[in-house]
Amino acid sequence: MNTTATDSTKTQQIAELRMLLSAGHTVHILFEKKDGSERDAKITRNLTNIPVEKHPKNVRKTEPKFIFAFDVNKADWICFHESQLIGFSPFIGLD
């Protein structure tokens, strides 16, 4: 197995996910929870898709290897480490 290619692909996936979220898209993700189970979520950072009462109150420093986003179905903010990402699919044009 070529771990370099896998690592490179994972790095590209993370960069693409961050770009989509920064551009305001909603993205369907699958990630591994801390307990080892898998969870899927529909996430965004687009404030027009987030209830006003859930908007961030202030800007805080974030850990660079963690992804923070609003889970549309859960109606709350979630955070996961880049290494926990299994895959994603954007809802481009649907959000």
Overview of the molecule:
The chain is an alpha+beta fold. It has a single domain (3-90), classed as SH3 type barrels (Roll), CATH 2.30.30. 21% of the residues lie in helices and 33% in strands. The chain contains one helix and five strands. It has a five-stranded antiparallel sheet, covered by helices on one side. A hairpin with a 5-residue loop joins β1 and β2 (38-44). The mean pLDDT is 89.
> How is the largest sheet built, in terms of strand order?
4-3-2-1-5
| Strand runs, count | 5
Q: What is the domain total for the residues? A: 1
Shape category? globular
Structural class: alpha+beta
| Number of H/I helices | 1
What's the alpha carbon Rg, rounded to whole Å? 14 Å
Overall CATH architecture = Roll
Report the CATH C-level class.
Answer: Mainly Beta
Helical proportion? 10-25%
Q: What is the name of the CATH topology?
A: SH3 type barrels
Low-confidence segments: none
Mean pLDDT: 89
SSE series = HEEEEE
Strand content: 25-35%
Termini, distance in Å? 37 Å
What summary fits the major beta sheet?
A: 5 strands, antiparallel
Task: Describe the SSE topology.
Blueprint: H1 3-22, E1 27-32, E2 38-44, E3 66-71, E4 76-81, E5 85-90
Antiparallel strand pairs: 1-2, 1-5, 2-3, 3-4
